[in-house]
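Question (not urgent): is this output format expected?
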Amino acid sequence: MIYDQLLAVLKEAGVEAIDAEGQPFDPNFHEAISQQETDEAEEGTVLQQLQRGYRLHDRLVRPARVVVAKSPSAVTETN
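Got this back:
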């Protein structure tokens, strides 16, 4: 109950959480902690949000820390 009240007060003050998961990576709002190779998402897409970011009246307070999709490396075989 107190947590909900705190969120309501912050929202009234103009604080917004940044929802990064599934969005294209934007260095203005996201901080890339690592990259993960995957075929399931387009390169440069945020796969996972490790720490939530926040904005205050369209100014960045803290960037969201994220894991970004990377296309898989081509495996070369040597004989």
